[in-house]
Amino acid sequence: MGNRKASGNPGFYLGSILLLGILLVFMVDFFLGNPLYYQLGEYTAEEDAFRAMAFGEGNLKEILSMAGENGLSAGEAACAFMVEADYDLTEEKDGHFTYRSWHSLKEAIEKRKPVEFSKLSEAYETVLSDIRCFPIPRGDSEESRCYGYSDSWKAERTYGGERYHEGTDIMDIGNGRGFFPVVSVSDGTVEHVGWLELGGWRIGIRAPGGAYFYYAHLDSYDHEFFPGEKIRAGQLLGFMGDSGYSPVPGTVGNFDVHLHFGIYLRTDHYEELAVNPYWILKYLEEKQVKYSY
To answer: Which residue range or ranges hold the M23ase beta-sheet core domain (predicted)?
Structure first.
């Protein structure tokens, strides 16, 4: 009589199966119905995945076009799609960047993490809201098309100690220092100008939305800029060169002629945090201003 086992009780089995089924449904809902939980946090804008700005070929154009057509900010449009893709759209080819899909994603994310979504949207807005034109204008000569660039984000650099590359280098191909004009990609205000050991003759412009656009290794400036000077998108800043990698102002020739272009934003823990400009530059290729050279 006192030796009956729970394993022989059909009710025990039924209850266990029911409990297991409820747990399974919960897990499926969590991992499939809520795939956005783990990759969106309070400080996502400081993490490598966000900073890579991995929009992929043509996707940023589609996203910003959809945003403009529907009265959305660039930041909130980009944020929903990037979060859903775990911050990497480089393999995305099917053009699903519609208002309907964006709205569905936004609702799903905000249902679970409204504060974090808003904060990350603001970070994307800072980076994207003021970009207007490619930093090298379109010329009218064959030589004006002789430049190139690749995704060198986080490539190793050694001058001044071990570090990684925080920008994109637009390389001159055969023309030499002083040939290519360099223009501002945005409206803004000059924040820093003059010689920097790493950057040579450089100029840094703070855009209205908060992004800091950095142009380094110039051969010369268009004129004597001063901090606080207002700049317009497409305005001539100077000419591509090979200055820098020396504490001595005017040093040239330590590397090939190129423009180092960087994008920085302020975050909770960093005054200047770099993001990868490569896919943003790919988007801006279709937005070159016209110069005669």
So the answer is: 164-267
